[in-house]
TrEMBL record:
Sigma-54 factor interaction domain segment(s): 347-579
PROSITE patterns named in the record: SIGMA54_INTERACT_2, SIGMA54_INTERACT_3, SIGMA54_INTERACT_4
Organism from which the protein derives: Massilia psychrophila
InterPro entries: AAA+_ATPase, AAA_lid_NorR, Homeodomain-like_sf, HTH_Fis, P-loop_NTPase, PAS-like_dom_sf, PAS_fold, Sig_transdc_resp-reg_PrpR_N
Coiled-coil annotated spans: none
Keyword Ribosomal protein set for record: no
Name of the protein in its database record: Propionate catabolism operon regulatory protein PrpR
Entry-linked SUPFAM superfamilies: Homeodomain-like (SSF46689), P-loop containing nucleoside triphosphate hydrolases (SSF52540), PrpR receptor domain-like (SSF159800), PYP-like sensor domain (PAS domain) (SSF55785)
Length: 665
């Protein structure tokens, strides 16, 4: 039963949040004088703390003290209890909320003596357990010899009071309980506590609350950090009981985090097999554990560096999330051009050979095996490589193309494999990842592999075998998950015979093969190729429409050409043709020696094989059909000079031919 009232207080807050909540418990036996003197004193002093604390003074039977305190503790309404003597010691043992003891000092004894001597010189002091009162000093000061006894229990108090009465003692100084027993025995009880010791107890309680709130705010911060971690974190005590765990950890083991607290780790997560560690105190390094359809990377660390094993922190990481993060980091570091832009559907060709190759490439795209693309320059090897990458499972990952013939050996090595900080003079600070690392999870296209220096072939072979790279100047390897597509215009078997290409590398690369035929072997693809290429030129040059007549006119020449530069050459020719065709009436071209066909076929190509090309050109030019001649006139809107220029003949020759063609028909 709570007899004394609550001292509600107003005023400024002590801490950032609320007033300190203090309960002072004064226990009594069968209270004869109500309210007890101590309670009254405490209430008076509590009033002076009203600006900083809400102090509840509770005067209740000793048998109810613990129940009351527990109740208040459970409802979380009290930050700290203040109590004296035996009850204080008892509550300290049984509560988790701090209990500040009202301690009596010599000053209290002086005050008590002052009151006691008013009644009698037969004075005794009863104190709970050992006190640090300066008894000799007090006796000398008051010139009174008084008796002093210590007690542990209420029974001892009762026995001592009754024996003191029989010895003629009239005044007993002690706690509120002692004074009550004395009063019950018909003696004078003098309270040992003074206003000063009560005030000191409140100061101690305030300091305690301040400390508590500081700790709680720190705990709150740490908890917020731990809760926001992407990893599952749990703290265990030395026996393996979970003291704290975040939601992610709870989620890994499909349970609510609150229900984990107090459970044993072996019951919650037997998969982790932490019992081995908990016994030895040796933390396991990162080990992979399968738990509830996930693979976790688990690390455990001792809570302190002390030799005594007093707890463990476990950190669990979802390997899927790690891989995703890894991919993100790598793609963040990826250059924008590490993308494949072509698809297999863009590869133009109506010939059986091309249609078969595109289908085969699409089958290859569904695998992860290494591919070797063979074919002369400009046959579309890179286009196929990009198409295969884009049609496969790695489409969203990087496509890294590297021309092995374009860089000097040392540069190619650092480009491919990267380097560590300070690997060579002039190297970038912090090192640089190689193209293999940047292609991680995607594809690497090793173009012109036949031109790779032998020393690098050896390093490349090791990477292909081990699937891991070591940067130049590095000491550790990094795993790379890369699909390799290599290409060359060389005959690698001949290169092997000459000793300039490693046979073992050839067999590593030549798992799946695509052999792209030169354009000369599939001239039937020309119309479709021209059409497709023109579409992209029109788009790129922002033309109004595709000059179909021009293509119709050029095609007969194209069929007769030998195409050493394959589709790339065709692309170049068509682009040139479009530009010349659109500017045919420009004086610059009108005054040009030669003619449209000459310009389209390009002097460079002609010069490469002068004899053959001049001869070919002659045959080509003499082969105009009547349809081509009239078509040229139509295209040039009846302008015979322009039509002659377009055909590469003089105006008079055009007239003559048209005449002779018409007489032949
Ligand atoms: N079948 C095709 N359909 C459409 N365009 C093609 C085709 N084949 C090649 N090309 C085009 O021809 C040009 C050359 O192709 P690509 O670079 O793929 O050839 P390559 O064999 O890799 O050449 P190199 O060996 O010289 O590197 C590219 O612009 C490409 O778009």
């Amino acid at each position: 039963m709570v007899r004394a009232s609550v001292l509600a207080t107003e005023g400024k807050t002590l801490m950032r949040h609320t007033l300190a909540r203090i309960a002072v418990i004064i226990s009594h036996l069968d209270l004869q004088v109500y309210p007890s003197r101590l309670a009254r004193e405490v209430q008076n002093i509590a009033a002076s703390f009203c600006a900083v604390a809400e102090i509840r003074v509770v005067d209740l039977p000793i048998s109810e003290s613990l129940a009351y305190a527990r109740n208040a503790e459970q409802s979380g309404e009290i930050d700290v209890f203040v109590c004296a003597g035996a009850t204080g010691a008892f509550l300290q043992k049984n509560l988790t909320t701090p209990v500040v003891l009202m301690k009596n000092g010599t000053n209290d004894l002086m005050h008590a003596m002052f009151e006691a001597v008013q009644h009698s010189t037969g004075i005794a002091l009863l104190s709970y357990r050992q006190s640090n009162l300066e008894l000799d000093y007090t006796e000398r000061l008051w010139k009174i010899a008084f008796k002093h006894f210590q007690y542990d229990t209420l029974a001892e108090v009762r026995a001592r009071v009754s024996s003191l009465r029989e010895c003629g003692c009239e005044v007993i100084i002690g706690s509120s309980m002692v004074t009550e027993v004395a009063a019950g025995a018909g003696m004078k009880g003098v309270l040992l506590s003074s206003a000063r010791s009560i005030r000191q107890a409140f100061e101690d309680a305030m300091a305690q609350v301040r400390l508590q709130r500081l700790e709680s705010s720190q705990r709150h911060h740490i908890n917020a950090i731990v809760q926001h971690l992407a990893d599952g974190v749990a703290a265990l005590d030395e026996t393996g009981k979970i003291q704290a765990a975040n939601e992610v950890f709870a989620g890994f083991f499909k349970t609510a985090s609150a229900s984990l607290i107090g459970s044993h780790i072996n019951d919650v997560a037997p998969e982790l097999e932490l019992h081995k560690y908990l016994k030895t105190g040796t933390p396991p390094g990162g080990c992979m554990v399968s738990a509830r359809q996930r693979t976790l990377l688990v690390n455990a660390y001792p809570l302190s560096n002390e030799p005594e094993h007093d707890g463990t922190v476990i950190i669990c990481q979802d390997t899927n999330a790690l891989q995703r993060a890894d991919r993100q980091i790598r793609s963040g570091a990826r250059r924008r051009d590490f993308r494949a832009t072509h698809c297999l559907t863009e590869i133009a060709g109506e010939s059986k050979a091309m249609q078969y190759l595109v289908k085969l490439a699409s089958v290859y795209a569904r695998t992860d095996s290494t591919i070797l693309l063979l074919g002369a320059s400009g046959t579309g090897k890179e286009m196929f490589a990009q198409g295969i990458h884009n049609e496969g499972a790695r489409a969203n990952a990087p496509f890294v193309a590297v021309n092995c013939a374009a860089l000097p050996e040392s540069l190619l090595e650092s480009e491919l494999f990267g380097y560590e900080d300070g690997a060579f003079s002039g190297s970038r600070r912090g090192g640089k990842p190689g193209l293999f690392e940047l292609a991680h999870t995607g594809s690497i296209f090793l173009d012109e592999i036949g031109d790779m220096p032998l020393a690098l072939q050896t390093r490349l072979l090791r990477v292909l075998q081990e699937r891991e790279v070591m940067r130049l100047g590095g000491t550790h390897t990094t795993c790379v998950d890369v699909r390799v597509i290599a290409a060359t215009h060389h005959n690698l078997l001949k290169q092997i015979a000459k000793g300039i290409f490693r046979e073992d590398l050839y067999y590593r690369l030549n798992i799946l093969q695509l052999n792209l035929p030169p354009l000369i072997e599939r001239l039937e693809d020309l119309p479709y190729l021209c059409h497709k290429i023109m579409e992209s030129i029109v788009r790129r040059l922002k033309l109004r429409d595709s000059p179909k007549e021009m293509i119709a006119m050029l095609l007969p020449y194209f069929y007769k050409y030998h195409w050493p530069g394959n589709v790339r050459e065709l692309e170049n020719m068509l682009e040139r043709a479009v530009i010349y065709f659109a500017n045919m009436n420009d004086p610059l071209f009108r005054e040009q020696e030669g003619n449209f066909i000459d310009l389209v076929f390009g002097h460079g190509a002609m010069a490469a094989d002068e004899e053959e090309s001049t001869e070919q050109r002659r045959t080509v030019l003499s082969a105009h059909t009547r349809r081509e001649l009239t078509q040229a006139v139509d295209i040039c809107a009846g302008n015979f000079s322009a039509a002659a220029k377009l055909l590469g003949i003089s105006r008079s020759t055009l007239y003559r031919r048209l005449k002779s063609e018409s007489s032949n028909t």
